[in-house]
Design goal:
Layout: H1 5-15, H2 21-30, E1 33-44, E2 47-56, E3 60-62, E4 65-68, H3 81-100, E5 107-110, H4 117-130, H5 132-137, E6 149-151, E7 166-172, H6 177-185, E8 194-198, H7 202-210, E9 219-224, H8 227-234, H9 244-259, E10 261-266, H10 290-303, E11 309-312, H11 319-326, H12 353-362, H13 368-375, H14 386-393, H15 407-420, H16 428-433, H17 437-443, H18 447-451, H19 462-469
Length: 472
C-alpha cells in the first residue's frame, strides 16, 4: 500500500494507525465471549429510562443507559409494550458494538431474544462494516465469516407490531450544515415536526432554536457509556470508531413510536457512500450510507414495524449541493459546528481535516471574509494542513476518517474558489493546487450539471422529492 517508508510514517502519524494484530489475537484468547445478558426500562416521573447489562467473559460487566426526558409530546401510554420491548432490545444490539470492540471476543451470546439466520447475518454485517475503520486503524486483518459468531437461540421471540402515526417528521440534529438544510426545507411539511438531539451540545441546541423550536419542543436523549469501558480504554484495551448512526437509527425509531410520528428524516447525503480507503469497503460513514439505509429499512419493516418511514432526506444531493443550500441561511453561520475535535468546547479547532473540508465545501458560496470569521482564519492559507488537503483532493489513497465529501466534489469546490480569488491574493494551498494535474482536470467541469445532479439512489417519497427538486 505504501510507496516509501516515509509515506508510511506520515500516514501513521496523521491517521493514528497502530499495529494491534497481536493484541487482537491475545484479547480473543483471553476474553472468549461477550454476552447481552438483559435490558430493563422504566417510566418514572414522565422520564423513560433504559439500562443494558453486558458481560465480557465473566470478567467485566457493563451497564450503559439511555434516558428520554419528560416532554408533553411523548405519548408513552399509546406505545404498545411489545413494540417498546422490541426496539429497546435492538438498541442494545447496537450498543453492544462499543463493548465488543474492547476485546473482540470470538463469540457473542444474545440471551434476551431469539434471532433467526437472516437477522444474525444483518447484525454481522452491521458490526463488520461499522467497525471497518476500527479494523483498518488497528491493522487487524478480519473477515466477516470468522471475526465473530452470534449465538441467539435461547431467549423469547419478538413480534412485529404496527401503530397509528401522523405524517409529521422527526429531524435528528447534529449541529452541522446538513441538518440545518433539512430543518429549513421541511419547515412547512407536517404540522408538528420535532427536532431530535442525542447528547445535546450548544451547536445542536442552537440549530434547533434558531430553526424556531423551543427547548420543550426538542426531543433530547441522553446516552451514557459505562465507566468500566472508559477504564479499559485507559488500560490499553482495543478502541476505535463505532457506527454511531446505526445507534441513532434505532433510537430515533423508538422516539417515533413514543411521539406517533411516521417520518424520520436523516440528513445523510450521497457523498457518504464513497469509501474512505480507496479500492476497499472501509468507510468511516458506513452507517450513513445508502447500503445501511437500505438494510435498516428492510430489517425494520420485516421484524419490528411497518409504521415508521426512516430515510435520508438529503440522499439525492452531494456535499457541494448541500453547501450551496446552507449558504442561503446566514442566521446559522455563527452557531453551526461540525468539528469533532472541538465538539466538547463548541468550536472549530481549525487544525483538522473536518474543519478544512467544511471550509472548502462552503467557500464557493459564502464570502471569504465571512468564512474567515466563522473558522477564525483562512484555512487554505495554512501550510500545516497540506497533508489533509492532499487526502481530500485524492493524492493520498486514503481520505481522512471523518464525514467528508467525495474527491470529485472537493476538487470542483477548489476550482470554484480559485476562480473567485485574484491570483495575487491566492492562499498557499490553492497556489500549490495550481501546480497539480488536478487543476487542469477539473478546471472546466460543467458546474451547472454538477450542482443540479439528483441522485436516484434514495428512499424519498414523492412529496419529499418535490421539496428537494424545487430548491436545487
Amino acid at each position: 500500500m505504501f510507496k516509501t517508508k516515509r509515506e508510511q510514517q506520515i500516514l501513521y502519524h496523521f491517521m493514528n494507525i497502530t499495529p494491534n494484530t497481536d493484541k487482537y489475537l491475545k484479547m480473543r484468547d483471553k476474553f472468549i465471549f461477550l454476552s447481552f445478558e438483559s435490558y430493563t426500562y422504566s417510566l418514572k416521573n414522565n422520564i423513560f429510562s433504559v439500562e443494558f447489562n453486558f458481560n465480557l467473559a465473566d470478567k467485566y460487566s457493563f451497564h450503559p443507559t439511555l434516558t428520554f426526558p419528560a416532554r408533553d409530546f411523548n405519548k408513552w401510554k399509546n406505545a404498545p409494550e411489545e413494540l417498546i420491548q422490541n426496539i429497546v432490545f435492538h438498541i442494545g444490539m447496537v450498543e453492544l458494538i462499543s463493548y465488543w470492540k474492547a476485546a473482540c471476543p470470538p463469540k457473542v451470546i444474545i440471551k434476551p431474544h431469539i434471532l433467526n439466520a437472516k437477522q444474525i447475518a444483518f447484525w454481522k454485517k452491521v458490526y463488520f462494516n461499522g467497525l471497518g475503520e476500527f479494523f483498518y486503524l488497528n491493522n487487524i486483518n478480519a473477515s466477516i465469516d470468522d471475526f465473530m459468531e452470534i449465538q441467539a437461540d435461547i431467549g423469547s421471540e419478538l413480534k412485529k407490531t404496527d401503530i397509528m402515526t401522523d405524517d409529521s417528521v422527526i429531524i435528528p440534529i447534529g449541529g452541522g450544515k446538513d441538518s440545518v438544510v433539512t430543518l429549513e426545507l421541511l419547515k412547512n411539511f407536517g404540522k408538528n415536526n420535532l427536532p431530535l438531539i442525542m447528547n445535546p451540545r450548544n451547536a445542536s441546541l442552537e440549530t434547533a432554536q434558531i430553526g424556531g423550536y423551543l427547548r420543550e419542543n426538542i426531543i433530547e436523549i441522553s446516552r451514557s457509556i459505562h465507566p468500566q469501558l472508559l477504564e479499559l480504554n485507559k488500560q490499553g484495551f482495543l478502541n476505535g470508531h463505532t457506527p454511531f448512526s446505526a445507534l441513532l437509527a434505532f433510537v430515533t425509531l423508538l422516539s417515533a413510536v413514543f411521539t406517533g410520528k411516521r417520518n424520520i428524516a436523516l440528513s445523510n447525503e450521497s457523498s457518504a457512500n464513497e469509501a474512505t480507503v480507496e479500492n476497499t469497503t472501509v468507510n468511516h460513514q458506513y452507517s450513513k450510507g445508502y447500503e445501511f439505509e437500505h438494510d435498516f429499512r428492510t430489517y425494520v419493516n420485516t421484524y419490528i414495524t411497518s409504521s415508521i418511514n426512516y430515510f435520508s432526506f438529503l440522499r439525492p444531493l452531494s456535499e457541494l449541493q448541500i453547501g450551496s443550500l446552507f449558504a442561503k441561511y446566514p442566521k446559522y453561520f455563527a452557531s453551526f459546528k461540525s468539528c469533532n475535535v472541538g465538539s466538547k468546547t463548541d468550536i472549530w479547532c481549525g487544525n483538522c481535516p473536518k474543519c478544512l473540508f467544511s471550509f472548502i465545501i462552503l467557500s464557493p458560496f459564502i464570502k471569504r471574509k465571512n468564512m474567515i470569521s466563522i473558522f477564525g482564519k483562512d484555512m487554505l492559507n495554512d501550510e500545516s494542513l497540506r497533508f489533509y488537503f492532499e487526502q481530500l483532493i485524492g493524492i493520498e489513497n486514503v481520505k481522512p476518517f471523518e464525514c467528508v465529501g467525495t474527491v470529485d466534489e472537493v476538487n470542483v469546490a477548489i476550482n470554484m474558489i480559485i476562480k473567485q480569488i485574484p491570483q495575487n491574493e491566492m492562499p498557499l494551498l490553492l497556489k500549490y493546487y495550481q501546480t497539480l494535474s488536478y487543476y487542469a482536470q477539473y478546471e472546466n467541469i460543467n458546474l451547472h450539471s454538477f450542482l443540479n445532479t439528483f441522485n436516484d439512489e434514495h428512499f424519498l417519497e414523492t412529496e419529499f422529492v418535490k421539496i428537494l427538486k424545487d430548491k436545487i
